Amino acid sequence: MDFILYFNILRRAFLDVQTNSNNxxxxxxxxxxxxxxxxxxxxxxxxxxxxxxxxLSPDQEFTYGITNKALRNAPxxxxxxxxxxxxxxxxxxxxxxxxxxQLLRSSFREIGYPLGKSSLIFNATSSRKSSSAAQLSFxxxxxxxxxxxxxxxxxxxxxxxxxxxxxKASVDDVESYAFAKAGNNTIATxxxxxxxxKTSGVYYFRNAADEVIYVGKAVDLKKRVISHFKSRxxxxxxxxxxxxxxxxxxxxxxxxxxxxxxxxxxxLAPIYNSQQIETNNPWIVESKIDAKGILRIVPTxxxxxxxxxxxxxxxxxxxxxxxxxxxxxxxxxxFMGVERTAGSCSSxxxxxxxxxxxxxxxxxARVYKALETLNSKEETYYLDLIGRxxxxxSFVLVVDGIYMGYGYITNQExxxxxxxxxxxxxxxxxxxxxxxxxxxxxxxxxxxxxxxR
Length: 453
Hints:
Helices cover 34% and strands 22% of the residues. The chain is of the alpha+beta class.
């Protein structure tokens, strides 16, 4: 079995990267190298330092052998991205570990270029042979496999990585090597969730094509994601088998995690969230003047607009509100949308507008008062919640009963009106799931509505 065994399908690129942190949330690449093969022929090689956003500490300079002086004149990632994109096109990409894959995928995605094709993870195959293999560094792994390569700076060993894969090819058969394919259950799954914090947030499972296939929320991100991989349910096993990367966004608290999860599922429509994808429109109450000049109140199932007077996700509750208004203000049920009749209505409380016995101007005045009553029952408030750090807090804003979105402010910020929150608001859509999430939260003991004017 020779080198060509794993280079006879398509071009393969081997990427090595060095970061300034082991925390994926804050890590930046400071050095990388890439080598591209077509069969056994080397087509392209590039290595470079990368200027990070923050300077290295003295300890980091010593550990990596890379100085801030050298990085100061290095290109940024976006400066070299176009060159990489051209040479990585149509390539299957191989990484030493899953951390490297997630970092580079994230870096490319930030500049609007999702890395395609499937990936190979060297540590995934090694972990099948030894439970400790996934913990070894690149240098230690190379020593274990007796791979010799030019000792360069960290992150500049793409050719050495290619030799590691070649060594694996010489000792394993084709089937065992196939287990290195990202997405297989034999991947070192601990690498997928080691970077996750134990805080509230939303997490995303991505497949080898860099597609989001599942979105979830959690009070403890790490604990929840681990539960997916330890589950024996067929659904969970299938989901985890396709997952090659897990990303997350911290929200600070469970409510915003619920609200963000709902919005992300609706926007991304992940294939494994199919049961949660919302399709129903809310029931709203609108008013309009008909051809005869009579002000009608109309219950309608559609997306709400600024002209609607109330929003509900239950038709019966809307009809009950309208029936109550009809009695309180002596309105005509025919023009309230609660009775479908031709000619005059059946209500004794109606003063005859449907029979031409009451001037429409007088009737319309009562309708306007009824709408004022309806609108006055809708509250405007915000929920003051825990933030993502000790220096901030978060909020959820509801205006006239409609969920407007959420945001984050400093602990020192004072809030007296809607305008104080608008600059920090992340606008969101009012849906059945967001309405239900907020209602459930309000039922918890100790929850306070902070009313606004």
